Amino acid sequence: MIVVENLHKHFGGFHAVDGASLEIRTGSITGLIGPNGAGKTTLFNVIAGRLPPTSGRVLMDGEDITGLPPHTLFAKGLLRTFQIAHEFGSMTVRENLMMVPAQQSGERLWNAWFHRGRITAEEKRLRDKADEVLDFLTISHIADAKASQISGGQKKLVELGRTMMVDAKIVFLDEVGAGVNRTLLNTIGDAIIRLNQERGYTFCVIEHDMDFIARLCNPVICMAEGKVLAQGTVDEVKNDERVIEAYLGT
Ligand code: ADP
């Protein structure tokens, strides 16, 4: 689905991504690992249209999507999860989900939401959709909670839920497990597997928790110093000498 060809992203003289080439197969849950500073997040940001590359190409289903803005990529079904913005913390979890289609398509929030005196058919449809998403993620009980008051793991589930408000094809998830307890991490893992199997989502996941990666991901790609070092099954990558060296070197 995604082909990255010889991608470079330089910040001044620093090569954060330094000639990375990789593929993400349709229907896979691909893991992206590597020591801190390897260039994983920068690579995600370039693929998702948040940063222009210095050089190189990104293809989606054969089409050159290099440098397209996030809302154009979003319309093609390529999404990168992002944290719930501070200003949406006072809205409920359900409202945060209902916001997504308008927010991402570049519509003005004002038009989309703040003329809310009347319940429109569109609003009802979005509400039903949000409730279905919350049910799928087993978090219906927090639908009316303020987004600022839910736990870190629940926030991650809501971030995942936001991708379900639209027709995503491929979702880029950055460090789902950071600061999340084991039980919720399992719930997040279950949701990713079900979205992959039941809804045909392709995923690319950056994660440091190797148990999580081992449970979900095949293949696993390891980056170091802006380049792809190794790829294969989790066992192949974990036992690759170059990978071991890269981790020991940090
Ligand atoms: P990873 O996600 O693998 O930890 P990052 O992509 O976040 O790696 O960072 C790769 C390197 O690029 C790091 O050394 C980081 O300091 C640097 N870097 C990232 N963003 C910028 C930026 N906007 N300006 C300068 N350097 C950056």
From TrEMBL:
Lineage top rank: taxon: Bacteria
SUPFAM superfamilies referenced in this protein's UniProt entry, alphabetically: P-loop containing nucleoside triphosphate hydrolases
Cited InterPro entries: AAA+_ATPase, ABC_AA/LPS_Transport, ABC_transporter-like_ATP-bd, ABC_transporter-like_CS, BCA_ABC_TP_C, P-loop_NTPase
Domain ABC transporter: 2-250
GO cellular component, one term: plasma membrane
A Pfam family it matches: BCA_ABC_TP_C
Keywords: ATP-binding, Nucleotide-binding, Transport
Record-level Gene Ontology MF annotations: ATP binding; ATP hydrolysis activity
The UniProt record lists the keyword NADP: no
Protein name: Amino acid/amide ABC transporter ATP-binding protein 1, HAAT family
Organism: Gemmobacter aquatilis
Species classification: Bacteria, Pseudomonadati, Pseudomonadota, Alphaproteobacteria, Rhodobacterales
